[in-house]
């Protein structure tokens, strides 16, 4: 496939290596400094676009891909409040988009088991639940997209939690969770040097705690998943989440 990469930072560079190893060609690499090269004419040469840029640029980039009529795989996080309008635009005008807060196989297994666990724990209301996420210091958004997906999976399957709230805690701070209401699910975010991504769901009662944790050792799993998604979506029409690609429900 001819792939255009929008965003050529930590993720873009690993995606380039994995896509090239899988015999794809990266013919266009866009970052902040050459963003004027992101033209409709250039985009039309792509079989598929892979987008890992920034929360501030992702919406414009998606719009350009729609205008060029090229399928797009979106890994960028921090824009999900626009999901409903984007989905409508994509479906109404016959475009193709697949997005994921996290493309790694391990995290997608985690997402699935998280929902099953939440359903089970709903029978034991004396456990309170919270989500913790740790990422590197350069991360622009909080909470992580992955933590939002985890929280939504819990809220969908639990009677006691109605919405999530985020607290970003710096090293050494005590979390001030006094203002969190019982029906709110706390997502606590930590930023620590070089951490690629760690997510923990904690069920806590007076007598014990249950912790369910995913630790990424590096970014290779995210990048491979994004390339697999590009291969999967390139000849499809519609608006997809990565869940449809993995389909653990089958
Ligand atoms: N879905 C997943 O599996 C997954 C995994 C890792 C990271 N991410 C997300 O991917 C995004 C990128 O992560 P990263 O670690 O590579 O960040 P990064 O900061 O290393 O790279 C961001 C890149 O975007 C470029 N950029 C800035 N403005 C741009 C524009 N207008 N058009 C195109 N590129 C532009 C920057 O120059 C830089 O090269 C983040 O939102 C992150 O949360 C998602
Ligand atoms: O490094 C990042 O930034 C990551 N972003 C995604 C998120 O917000 O969940 C996936 C994990 C790494």
From TrEMBL:
Keywords: Amino-acid biosynthesis, Cytoplasm, Diaminopimelate biosynthesis, Lysine biosynthesis, NAD, NADP, Oxidoreductase. InterPro entries: DapB_C (IPR022663), DapB_N (IPR000846), DHDPR_bac (IPR023940), NAD(P)-bd_dom_sf (IPR036291). It is found in: Cytoplasm. Homotetramer. Pathway: Amino-acid biosynthesis; L-lysine biosynthesis via DAP pathway; (S)-tetrahydrodipicolinate from L-aspartate: step 4/4. Catalyzes the conversion of 4-hydroxy-tetrahydrodipicolinate (HTPA) to tetrahydrodipicolinate. It catalyses: (S)-2,3,4,5-tetrahydrodipicolinate + NADP(+) + H2O = (2S,4S)-4-hydroxy-2,3,4,5-tetrahydrodipicolinate + NADPH + H(+); (S)-2,3,4,5-tetrahydrodipicolinate + NAD(+) + H2O = (2S,4S)-4-hydroxy-2,3,4,5-tetrahydrodipicolinate + NADH + H(+). The keyword Protein transport does not apply. Residues 106-245 form the Dihydrodipicolinate reductase C-terminal domain. NADP(+) binds at residue 35. NAD(+) binds at residues 31, 75-77, 100-103. It is an enzyme of class 1 (oxidoreductase). Its main location: cytoplasm. The active site is at 135 (proton donor/acceptor), 139 (proton donor). Its EC number is 1.17.1.8. One of its GO terms (molecular function) is oxidoreductase activity, acting on CH or CH2 groups, NAD or NADP as acceptor. Residues 1-103 form the Dihydrodipicolinate reductase N-terminal domain. It holds the Pfam family DapB_N. GO terms for biological process: diaminopimelate biosynthetic process; lysine biosynthetic process via diaminopimelate. This is 4-hydroxy-tetrahydrodipicolinate reductase.
């Amino acid at each position: 496939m001819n792939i255009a990469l929008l965003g050529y930072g930590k993720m873009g560079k690993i995606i380039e290596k994995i896509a090239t190893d899988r015999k794809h060609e990266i013919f266009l690499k866009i970052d902040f400094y050459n963003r004027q090269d992101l033209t409709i004419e250039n985009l039309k040469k792509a079989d598929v676009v892979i987008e890992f840029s920034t929360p501030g640029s992702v919406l414009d980039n998606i719009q350009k891909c729609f205008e060029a009529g090229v399928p797009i795989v979106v890994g960028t996080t921090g824009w999900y409040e626009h999901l409903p309008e984007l989905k409508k635009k994509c479906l109404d005008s016959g475009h193709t988009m697949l997005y994921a807060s996290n493309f790694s196989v391990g995290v997608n297994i985690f997402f699935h088991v998280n929902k099953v666990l939440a359903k089970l724990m709903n029978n034991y209301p004396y456990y309170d639940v919270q989500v913790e996420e740790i990422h590197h210091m350069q991360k622009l958004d909080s909470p992580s997209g992955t933590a939002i997906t985890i929280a939504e999976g819990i809220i969908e399957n639990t009677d006691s939690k109605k919405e999530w709230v985020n607290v970003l805690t710096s090293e050494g701070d005590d979390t001030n969770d006094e203002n969190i209401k019982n029906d709110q699910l706390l997502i606590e975010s930590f930023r620590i040097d070089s951490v690629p991504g760690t997510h923990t769901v904690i069920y806590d009662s007076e007598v014990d705690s249950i912790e369910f944790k995913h630790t990424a050792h590096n970014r290779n799993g995210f990048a491979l998943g994004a390339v697999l998604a590009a291969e999967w979506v390139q000849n499809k029409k519609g608006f997809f989440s990565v869940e449809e690609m993995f389909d653990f429900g089958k």
